[in-house]
Amino acid sequence: MLVSATTLKWLLRMYPPLLFQRIWTIGFLPDFKGVRVKVNKSLLNKNYNGSIFGGTIFAAADPFFPVLFHQILNSDRKRNLKVWSKSAKIDFLKPAFTDLHFEISIDDKAIQEAKETLIVMGKYEQFFPIDFYNNSGELCVSVLVQVYVRDLDLSKTLI
User: Fold this and answer.
1) How far is CA 68 from the centre of its chain?
2) Is the CB of residue 58 less than 8 Å from the CB of residue 88?
3) What are 71-82's pLDDT values in tens digits?
4) Which residue of 1, 45, 96, 139 shows the fewest CB atoms closer than 10 Å?
5) DSSP per residue over 63-105, as a string?
6) How far from 87 is each of 13, 16, 95, 136, 154, CA to CA, in Å?
7) For residues 108 and 77, what is the distance between their CA atoms, to the nearest angstrom?
């Protein structure tokens, strides 16, 4: 589903798994080449140590690269794509005692690589980093998310 940046921002803000974990989409960069996100610390996502629950942080890392790739790869032509986070590796470097924020972006080289790989292979897999910072600008969490994209129409012709 292709939608405007404003519509998608509000859909993600109101999406219950993100809303109830206090994960707030601040905004998208032009052409969906990036997004800014804030994880608000609250009673709903605080663990017994008083920091943000690791599952909340993991949930914040999960959807954004796939959403960006779906929007980007469908912008030039309608494709039957399946896009998701295939795997992730998370390193908790410092307890998150304040809100967290991150900004991710996809450069033109990665977009071109994805398009070319989809044409040849019918699928694209790549790892992308997400670094979460606290209110003091300190790195608290580092995540590597593996994005998986499959062009279902092309996959049928390759089989």
Assistant:
1) 7
2) yes
3) 999 876 777 899
4) 1
5) SHHHHHHHHHHTTSS---EEEEEEEEEEEE-S---S-EEEEEE
6) 23, 22, 23, 29, 23
7) 17
The token duo for 69 is 């790739």
Does the reported pTM lie above 0.85?
A: yes
Helix (H) or strand (E) holding 116: helix 108-121
Name residues of the chain where pLDDT drops below 50: 158-159
Question: Please, what are the domains in the chain?
Answer: 5-158 (3.10.129.10)
- Its sign, for the CA torsion 144, 150, 151, 154, is positive
What is the C-alpha separation between 38 and 12, in angstroms, rounded? Answer: 12
